[in-house]
Design a protein that fits this description.
Length: 284
């Protein structure tokens, strides 16, 4: 337990959370548009990312591109703190003779992903409802959590947890590819971290996108229960195989840039803090 609760894990978690908040704040309009296309918004579903953004601005005003940003930023910060802390905390527990390679990254990132999903799914269920351009019965994250639990029961807070658990594969692939590439690249610059983050996220997103689409739609069903396989079958039946990738363009643009910016910010913050701590230790 002492090894798990260490300052290095705390630094990594804080840097990861900060990086995610910075990235999401900069790119939130892309995330918002991607979400609405995934949710099958009839006005946006056949439009490109730029067309969708311009349409939203023209019809609803520029402020609508930032609808729900406060709870999303809060949730992203909490979620990434949990993930990074668990990932690096578990890594610190490994015996010294265990080689850190792609296999160990795969196992550790899977555990970290499951822990993160179980703890933070309620936050994302509420966020999904707050983003839609319709009247909602609650205002903000806490009010939303209370409302959903009261109206739909505690199980309503974990809607979409099935595909969410399956989607642990996304950060698992992302982290495994990122850590593997980082061990092979000697460059230590912000540009290198940006490119590594972008490349690893591209691989993860393309492989897991249909599950992300299913997760988004499941969270929106208030009075319906539909499993992932059935939902994906209905999407293919109604829209063909291309329907499984509705919103992929905006998702790729948003998520790849976001991951690249997040990892660049995370790495540079962590480097700076560890450098300062090392200097302070030498002074003492």
């Amino acid at each position: 337990m002492k090894n798990l609760l260490n300052y290095k894990s705390l630094v990594h978690a804080t840097a990861g959370a900060t990086g995610s908040v910075v990235a999401l704040t900069c790119l939130y309009p892309l995330d918002n548009v991607k979400f609405r296309i995934q949710a099958n918004d009839k006005e946006l579903v056949d439009k490109s990312t730029i067309q969708a953004i311009l349409h939203v601005i023209r019809k609803e005003g520029i402020e609508s591109l930032y609808r729900g940003i406060k709870p999303v930023i809060t949730s992203a910060g909490i979620s990434n703190f949990v993930y990074f802390y668990t990932f690096h905390g578990l890594k610190s527990l490994l015996p010294k003779y265990v080689e850190i390679n792609a296999k160990t990254d795969l196992v550790i990132s899977t555990i970290a992903g499951v822990v993160n999903v179980l703890l933070t799914t309620p936050l994302w269920v509420v966020n999904s409802r707050l983003k839609l351009p319709q009247e909602v019965l609650y205002n903000g994250l806490i009010d939303g959590l209370v409302h959903v639990a009261k109206v739909e029961g505690l199980q309503g807070l974990w809607k979409g947890i099935g595909p969410s658990l399956i989607l642990v594969s996304n950060p698992v692939i992302h982290f495994t590819v990122y850590e593997s590439l980082k061990r092979k690249v000697t460059l230590n610059s912000a540009t290198a971290f940006f490119l590594l983050g972008a490349l690893s996220k591209t691989v993860a997103t393309v492989l897991t996108y249909p599950l992300q689409l299913a997760q988004t739609r499941q969270r929106l069903y208030v009075n319906k229960k539909i499993n992932t396989a059935t939902l994906l079958f209905l999407v293919v039946k109604n829209n063909g195989l291309k329907g499984l990738y509705q919103g992929l363009e905006s998702k790729m643009l948003q998520t790849v840039l976001s991951a690249a910016l997040m990892f660049m910010t995370y790495e540079k913050i962590a480097q700076t803090v560890f450098r300062l701590l090392l200097k302070d230790k030498h002074r003492k």
